[in-house]
Amino acid sequence: MRPHTPKTTCHDAVPSAVALDDAGFSTLERQCLQVMRLYFSSFAEPQASGWVGAIDYARMSFSAERAMDLAGAILDTVQAMRTSRRSVFNFSNPLCKHCAKLLAPAERHLISTVHCLRAGKSEEAGVHAMLLCEGNPSKRFLTAAGRLGHLLDAEERLGAMAPAER
């Protein structure tokens, strides 16, 4: 996906989008979403090589110790979700300042699944996964999202440590 101006009304393309700031996700979860969006853009426009941007963003956003593990876990989660869904996944353009501030409904279920798993709310995560995967089998997706959640938790703990403790 190419960057564009709000004059192109790009942000009108995803109905029911809400402000990302109002969704209650942590900074790490929001960074995770940005990496996911860059992967999605790679699928939407393969010639744009969005996956390179996804890995670069992960390296800039996460610790050197976990950036590549997180980039891989994010891709595993995305791929598991993609194999379960049958319809198009609508996402906000990560390269547009305005669009990136909006959370599409499917994105909300995706990040909410990870968020709920991190909070120990497995039943709620299952509901989000079922809706996201459109009633199709979601076990592989939930497993991948759980692994991603564990890595995000470890990243959060690492960030809370003093540099000398790392």
Explained architecture:
The structure is a single chain. With 166 residues, the protein is mainly alpha-helical. 57% of the residues lie in helices and 2% in strands. The protein has helices at 27-44, 50-61, 67-84, 105-118, 122-132, 139-160, and strands at 18-19, 102-103. Strands 1-2 form a two-stranded antiparallel sheet. It is globular, with a radius of gyration of 15 Å. The N and C termini lie far apart (37 Å). The relative contact order is 0.17. Residues 162-166 have low confidence and may be disordered.
The rounded Rg comes to 15 Å
Number of strands: 2
Query: What is the SS-derived class?
Result: mainly alpha
Low-confidence parts, pLDDT < 50 over ≥5 residues? 162-166
Task: Supply the number of helical segments.
Answer: 6
Mean pLDDT, all residues: 89
Spatial strand sequence of the major β-sheet = 1-2
Task: Draw up the topology in text.
Layout: E1 18-19, H1 27-44, H2 50-61, H3 67-84, E2 102-103, H4 105-118, H5 122-132, H6 139-160
Antiparallel strand pairs: 1-2
Helix pairs in contact: 1-2, 1-3, 1-4, 2-3, 3-6, 4-5, 4-6
